[in-house]
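Journal club prep — side note

Before the paper discussion, L.F. wants everyone to see what a predicted structure for a comparable chain looks like in token form. Sequence:
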Amino acid sequence: MINRRFLLASTAGLAAFAALRWLGFPGKAEAAGKFEIEKTPEEWKRQLTPRQYYILREHGTERPFSSPLNKEKRKGIFACAGCDLPLFASETKFESGTGWPSFYDHLPNAVSKTEDRTMMMVRTEIHCRRCGGHLGHVFDDGPKPTGLRYCMDGDGMVFKPADGSSS
């Protein structure tokens, strides 16, 4: 359930971030380091939708409650929209009330973490281990057994149902 404090804080944070972007301060171009899959910005733009590019390559954030993956309840795997690496199992997904798909754990060898000091705070940013695509952030207010909440941007992922049907 969303309370007034959460709504005001998230709205103010998103407005500040949008204002910085409007003023010409771009998001980070990519996670630091070398990755198995590396492409030029032009190659990524040809492969990804504009929203996927904004999330994965420019470290953007989608509007809360805007991703269909937030409501995805089927069994399956959430994979990176950039390189198709399996990231999260549906069994670890939970309803956080934040408006973004949330998980309490990731699949083995799926993600990497970096420190994010944007928006006047320190957060732990989550990237795809294989292509470096920005996925979201992890917080320590999740459910057992990990106590973590991987708050992911749905536009940075694709869903692969366990039954093989299309998502």
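L.F.'s comment for the group: The beta strands are 76-80, 86-89, 93-94, 102-103, 111-116, 123-128, 134-139, 149-152, 157-161. Keep this in mind when we get to the figures.
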